[in-house]
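Handout for the seminar on molecular recognition.
Each group receives one record of this type.
Step one: identify the two inputs.
Step two: read the structure output and locate the region that could contact C2E.
Step three: write two sentences on what you found, then compare them with the reference statements printed after the record.
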Amino acid sequence: LVLVRRTTVPLERLIDGTRRLARRDWSARVDVAARDEFGELASSFNDMASRIERQVQALHVQSDIDHEILSGLDPSRVLGQVMARLQALAPTARVGLLLAAEGDGAWQRAAAPGMPAGAVALDPDLLRRVERGATTLRGAEALLACGLLGPPGQPSEPGSAEFDPVMVFPARAQGRTRALLLLAGPGLVDADVLQELEDLSDRLAVMLVATERERELRRRAVHDSLTGLVNRSGLIEALDRRLALPGEAGFVLAFIDLDGFKTVNDTRGHPVGDALLCKVAALLRALAPADALIARPGGDEFVLLLPGDRAAADGLASKLGRRLLEPLLVDGQTLRIGASIGLVRCPDDGHERINLMRRADLAMYAAKASGRGRHAWFEPALDERVAERAWLQAELPGALRRGELCLHYQPRVVAGSGRLASVEALLRWTHPLRGMIPPARFVPLAEETGHIVALGSWVMDTACHQLRRWRAAGVPVPRMAVNVSALQLAVPGFADEVLSVLRRHGLQPRELEIELTESLFAGDADEVTSRLAPLRDAGVQVALDDFGTGFSSLSSLYRLPVDVLKIDRSFVTDLGQRASADGVARSIVALARALGKHVVAEGVETEAQHQHLLALGCDELQGYLFSRPLSADALEAKLGCRTLEPPLPA
Ligand code: C2E
Ligand code: CA
Ligand code: CA
């Protein structure tokens, strides 16, 4: 019986241990003390089981790291696991994990049981030694490395630290040491443990690279690569976070839209446009308070999220508006733009993100409509105007196709004689349901959407066709003036197209005048000049429309490639009312004459204005006093009398 039991008991235990192992109970060990073959078998089994256990635990930690790499959840959780694993591998050693901060050479100690994370000063020489392959540090170096682990949890043997070696496992990836695993103390490690520590540090390096990349991707996802400001997604995130804050005290949202940016971009090219945007971003950074969020959601739009009340935001908006009207030095060139700013306050003007952003946008358009460099707060009445805009945007593309557009012609007369000098073609849109829609409402929109290019080609062709018909019918219209927007001029081949339209209708180039606005020359005047050159060389006249409202200083006038100046209606209206208007009109006429340019005054409505302009010496006059814009038929009828005399004063 004794003999049988000596055989069966250890055999049963061995069988039991094997079964547990097969059931993945890695802690299975066999207790057989016999000094015979069973004893040897048991000790081999235990040896094997503990190696398997260690292997499995190592795999667990590694798969956790892999999981972290793939899911990008929380690297600090994995760091805790790595620390625990280190401690398990070397139970008697003090363990530590040092992490390199991104970029700046600073190092952080990962949190250990009973010790918080903290910055450490890693000796560059020590790091260099480790990077050159020193895996075991002794003596002074060991002491140095030991110091990085922070105060020991329990006091080590007096003097022992001095002689205990410190093992270092650098976690390197993409040519950089990202972390150091440290084991300080007498804990001897065997080859298996060594292998695992190396694997562990490799995996850790991969994870750290992955987290860094993840963070960079995130940063890029919420930042604008051009200006470095927060982009649209970042703005939305920040706003939502802000709106979800309990007890949010309120904030102001400012939408800033650059005036004239499109012109700079179209005429000077995108690199200059980009540089301009960066310049504006820098300006906003300098002027906005430190706790403001500055975003560029897209294009030439900037958004500020400002904590605080209306008064502070109002002050900042006027300051910004003023500053952006001043000349900006960009790429060695002086650019003049401006900005319109729309403001809303949460919660007074809404407490939903979409509503707030829409209303800030509306306020911005209201500011734009009121003039350059203005700012405006949201008002409920603005809501109605949006519907209008949306409607126009939807209807405009089809207007041309459906034949709803036509041209009216407004005469321009020779000052003094009243003889017809030319007519200006003005676009008219008659919508079947809404009736007549004035160009001031849809032309700016068409310029925004780019539709103006197609509309403009149609206008040019139609106006030339009309002039040709008048020629054939003997109607005495000497010249046709056509409005051309900056966008049309920027289309390559514009000049060729105009010249070929003239040829097609059998007209002389000098029978055409194109009217451009001053803002066109705010950008790259040389570029505009070269685009106009073929037209001017052929004899097409170029007029500067709305002169006096834009950027060109009187002194820069001599450089502009224009033949005609049209004094803006606002000066004519103020003639005789405000001394300053008289002065401006007088100097414009004097200067234009000196430069050999033709001067036209537009918007002449009263006899008093008429007399005033005659006295100033204008060449041509245009306005309701002489004629409103008329359909082709109405103009023909009116021209039966050949001269357009102003009605006698009552
Ligand atoms: P604009 O080029 O300055 O045209 C002159 C505007 O002043 C016209 O308005 C004209 O009807 C108006 N006007 C003329 N005389 C008087 C007057 O004595 N008193 C007053 N109060 N107004 C007068 P309209 O036709 O409404 O056009 C507005 C603007 O729309 C034009 O200003 C021009 O910038 C734009 N536009 C019109 N047609 C075209 C076009 O074919 N192409 C482009 N790009 N723009 C156009
Ligand atoms: Ca005009
Ligand atoms: Ca004008």
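Reference statements: Residues 37-71 form the longest helix (35 residues). DSSP finds 22 helices and 22 strands in the chain.
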